[in-house]
Design a protein that fits this description.
homotetramer
């Protein structure tokens, strides 16, 4: 009778995870007043969910809006939308395997975004960083001087730089992490930040030994053991629920 | 019937922002037991508001005093005034566009104040740092050995070093940030501190890529998108109000 | 009448310390969602106690399980066990003097695990680090690319790398600390992390002066003065008890 | 009628400051489970006050004991005393101007204690560091390998290394700060730690500019402006009193 997208069954679970993800990412220092996380609609892969433009710490299920992959809101009349939401739509187009996307400015990633030193995996759970996170320079698309990713060509350029990686850094700006689920996306974003800190500190000590190629390859074919334990603990600390 | 400066309409808003600014700047690590933030009177540009000499964390509207631009209190009999209030008066004289000033000693800025390495913008929201924050050396004015900026000639020297910048560092001392509003001034001070931390950590990784000239120039002519979102969130966390 | 191992007298004390150790190690940043600490059964040195597989912050006495030194649970039917529990069993086999073991991924140790710079004692209470903590590279045992220590040969290799040390670092992974009691093991793990941070920061300043050989030798024959004061304070802050 | 030293008038104030100092120094990261702070008896300069051996965070007025300058308790039967209390007695003997002493192991000072890089003043309020804090190496006194300062000759060596300075670093151990009052001693210890952090981070940026000789000389003859503002704020945050 109306055009509200009903959130039922697995959609409801995705939205629940998405709300928790907003708060967890703030609690873990990945998001602050800015940045945004989205999830692809599990029932319609041509849509994604994301909050209206607001501080992530304050997001509730009522703030979640459905978008098509051109990043237009499904329901007419929505306003106060993130300018950079095209990042999400264009990545979902380019990467059918991706079910969640976060754009952030976490503090240990920016030094790598502005350096020729690549962010590389220090430990097994960061093996998803592979041979090193690529860096997207928006000047390869256009050069007007606004570093925000607000146009389709810019977001397409970003998606190309991401390629088959799970994390891409944005020169002078921040990062984008993606995952096959909201939880994996959150894990990628949190671990990328932690790994960056470890790598900066290891660099003080001298040449750094990163994961071997065989270890990176192993992680590509193996699943992590009990990855949701961290999610449950992180969620409990922000949502007041039992871990 | 008395000489109390009435705080009405936009003055009231400025004072409200000024009280919040004191607490936000403590909460963000920009001020500690020392330092001070002021706002030009919106109804009389020849006056400015600042608290009496006290710990910024404890400032309420009752502690706000009006000063003329020679940094004398408008109302006779005020005492317990900041020794360094001339910083504020002389900058308001030299920079008609400036509506707020903060003097602070935040920890990541002092390394740059005592170094030949200039503080330069790492990300878009720090573009206001331009080609790099200038450093004021009080010995260019006099050399008695007290590093505090307590005389008009010292404050004039500081204002000259600031020039058309938004942040100036004080060798062996701290920093001054200015803005076209209290909120912008707070944003400049918080972002300068954050950017300094990013730059220190990036320096560990090797040569740092800063914003390009075109990106700095763009920021000079463009307004930031939704800059008050951070202010609202920061204020909510210190004032117990809704963000 | 049943196969439940009764916790009496000194066993009860060990279990009580083990529960506190889980929480202290989280509070001190040594454990997060992952990692595990165990204690040898004081009444049967062929057994050890450890929680089931769970977040250490949530461990209570009810979660503690008894294992034999082949890391099989003593009571049939136990499930949800740590994959890496062989670390504990094989170290207890190789080191009869060891009464407690912790495996962790604390952030300041990993830079040393991935570096040729050895972790060496900066202060007297870190003298147990001796001439430097050894680094275990799991590729010296096998090379399948999973960095976790899940098989007996891998754990035996780790125990060999530990040798007579109190701390061993695991390349691309984390660390293991051991002690002659739960309390000493906790102290070793906490101090190793603290010492790593001190050493990283000292490295920024230039060549680092570590403890002299005579000072390391002294610590081998002397007992620390009042080491339990830190334990009592740490326990009080996590268990709500009087220090 | 008994040998209890009555705490009256200015003694009462000193003891009150001493209790607050214990808690402030923990809150500021200068003390942890270990370390100790003392104050000379204002009515009898041949005595000093210090807590019994315990965690500084828990000290109350009831825990304060009077010692003579040979570091023997004035009242017979006192036990549980700090092994290193001779540090205090010997410094009070060597420095009649010193009214308070703290021995600590704060984390940013130890890198300088183990380095040839001297701790030097970065900002005006750290001018008391002068040309750089001296480093005491206990091996210049004896070489048994215990780094603790427990004998009179060791403490005399430490007092000689301190000389006319306000801070001395102890190789492989920690630091001692002194002051003309409890509050000044606390300020010296807190600022030394803060200055060390600033200097480490400045070192990452390149050659560091420290205070000029004339600025250090000025601080020797001038009093700091409103130094108690920090004390009042620090005390309020630990004692629940109004700042």
């Amino acid at each position: 009778m109306n055009d509200v997208t009903p959130f039922i069954s697995s959609q409801a679970e995705v939205v629940d995870d998405l709300v928790a993800a907003n708060r967890i990412l703030v609690d873990r220092g990945v998001l602050d007043a800015y940045g945004h996380v989205s999830a692809r609609d599990p029932d319609d892969h041509g849509r994604y969910f994301m909050s209206r433009s607001m501080a992530p710490a304050l997001v509730t299920a009522d703030d979640i809006i459905a978008f098509d992959l051109d990043s237009n809101p499904v329901r007419a009349g929505e306003n106060r939308l993130f300018f950079e939401r095209v990042i999400h739509g264009e990545i979902y187009k380019a990467r059918p395997d991706v079910m969640a996307v976060v754009h952030n400015h976490s503090r240990s990633l920016i030094p790598f975004a502005n350096s020729d030193t690549r962010l590389r995996p220090m430990v097994g759970n960061a093996a998803f960083l592979g041979e090193g996170a690529p860096v997207f320079d928006i000047r390869t698309v256009d050069d007007d001087g606004d570093l925000n990713v607000c146009t389709v060509p810019q977001a397409q350029g970003l998606a190309r730089a991401l390629g088959q990686h799970w994390v891409v850094l944005l020169r002078g700006h921040g990062a984008v992490a993606v995952g096959q689920s909201v939880r994996q996306c959150v894990r990628h974003a949190v671990i990328a930040e932690t790994n960056a800190r470890l790598q900066i500190e290891a660099t003080i000590l001298g040449p750094v030994h990163f994961l071997a190629e065989s270890e990176i390859a192993y992680a590509r074919r193996a699943k992590p053991k009990d990855p949701d334990r961290a999610w449950r603990l992180w969620k409990a600390s922000v949502m007041g629920t039992q871990a």
